[in-house]
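Lab notebook, bench 4. The sequencing result for the construct came back, and we need a structural model before the next group meeting so we can plan mutations. Quick request posted to the team channel:

Model the 3D structure of this chain.
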Amino acid sequence: MRRWLVAASAFALLGLVGCTTAVQVHTENKSPPTQRLVVKVSAPAAMPADAQALLVARLNTQLSARGALAEQEESGAAELEVRVLNYSMRSDSARFFAGVLAGSDNVQSAVRVIKREGGTVLAEFTVESANISAWGTSRGMVEGHADKILATLGGGKR
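Done. Here's the predicted structure in token form:
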């Protein structure tokens, strides 16, 4: 029993070590905590439409839960501009059958919060999420990336 527990713990640790996120802040967030945001996402052709829709949905859902999601034409709202720079994702079947031999997953985004009136940049940073392990799913990777964007923006409590 003890050996089984040690082996299970080792596998869990390897799964956690394989997932990384790096954040590079270019402009500290100058927006007020009550700033409402409109989400705008652009992505390269390599990012499937369903993955892009998942990213947008997760950002909108999390902002709405915080009371920070603005309507498109709302006065005083700022724009949360997410430009996906790199999207490289293994299929879930490749991840299952080939594991780490199937390569790694990577999503990198440049993020800016721009005041609509005047175009002032209120925040600017880059987020890169990577997974070299075979644990997890592409959906979880994209949702985790969105969560990291919002955590970086507002410390998780906008």
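Residues 5-18 have pLDDT under 50 and may be disordered.
Will bring this to the meeting.
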